[in-house]
Automatic annotation (TrEMBL), chains A, B:
<dbReference type="InterPro" id="IPR003722">
    <property type="entry name" value="Cbl_synth_CobH/CbiC"/>
</dbReference>
<dbReference type="Pfam" id="PF02570">
    <property type="entry name" value="CbiC"/>
</dbReference>
<feature type="domain" description="Cobalamin biosynthesis precorrin-8X methylmutase CobH/CbiC">
    <location>
        <begin position="10"/>
        <end position="207"/>
    </location>
</feature>
<keyword id="KW-0413">Isomerase</keyword>
<dbReference type="GO" id="GO:0043778">
    <property type="term" value="F:cobalt-precorrin-8 methylmutase activity"/>
</dbReference>
<protein>
    <submittedName>
        <fullName>Cobalt-precorrin-8 methylmutase</fullName>
        <ecNumber>5.4.99.60</ecNumber>
    </submittedName>
</protein>
Amino acid sequence: MEYIKDPKMIEVRSFEIIQGIIDDIRPGYKFKNEIEEKIIKRCIHTSADFEYLDILKISETAVQKIIDALNNKCTIYTDTNMALSGINKTKLNALGCEYKCLVADEITKELAKEKGITRSMAAVELAMKDEGRKIFVLGNAPTALYKVIEMFDAGYSVDAVVGVPVGFVGAAESKYSLEQTQIPYIVAEGRKGGSNVAAAIVNAILYAM
Amino acid sequence: MEYIKDPKMIEVRSFEIIQGIIDDIRPGYKFKNEIEEKIIKRCIHTSADFEYLDILKISETAVQKIIDALNNKCTIYTDTNMALSGINKTKLNALGCEYKCLVADEITKELAKEKGITRSMAAVELAMKDEGRKIFVLGNAPTALYKVIEMFDAGYSVDAVVGVPVGFVGAAESKYSLEQTQIPYIVAEGRKGGSNVAAAIVNAILYAM
């Protein structure tokens, strides 16, 4: 069988096709700026879902805050190992950033049990107690996103949140709540999102740096 | 803030809402059988994308072959660590199944370089040389799916393929090719799919067993 086997060629051609489809289905669609274009196209690349043209929202300072945190050895906290798996570790290592998914740690399980909260929430509580700059990357757990908002409101520091929990119970509401805060955010409004989309957003920024 | 915090309740309620939306947007939609319903709904659960109602296709013997392989200590080979992360390991361990993503192994890199093929293809070549029963779970790499088909045609044994590479270059074509073979398959026709969808399909079957 004959097929394109060069991963770099496949990626370049994929983004050309994505633009071609946008021209076709949404003539005149304008991205606000180059980085928004790169983020949204990478969300489409990972999902083949063009609804991200309409639902992906980036607050004014979010990209600059994320880049600044990444340039200052921040830690990325994900709510699933799947999101963590998808993020480009070579780039993060080169920047000297750390990356963690605390959700399955023993200490997280104990804290969740003790407090009667979800492990996703307990993982946020533990993360917030770490020193240093923080980006939360959440593709799954609305409860984690609510907990980040609660702790930010209580005075804990957060550099930015990639808030794209997918789902039918609390996901849309949690993202709407995030948009009402002063936290720099990137969200997928409504039900859509996911670990793949969360990782794609972070990678789009890493590749643009 | 008040929100549902019990993960089991969230899941039950999510599937009720999914059925409600199906009733609403596709009145009279009928699943072929209970396991197809569980698989498709779990794809929707992980993506919030109801297009899986139309594009998810399961060959006649696929589910039975997968269950049979899982009951006989098969190995699951994924094309990404992301797909591997998303699959329920507790269930696989209880069944005595193994699970591997070979794509980043040194031996895979060497073989890919030596042969001038993608690492995804080299990972399939190495997997095929293992003893025992095999399920391939592919959410990313059309080249891996083509390689599975080539090696099956050359006489290598494959129990089943969950073939849901997402993308714009070769993804749809690779899945169409799989549908033309005698390999038991579960595919997402067209461009959609992904590591999250691949894991969701395996989990739906594991939870139904």
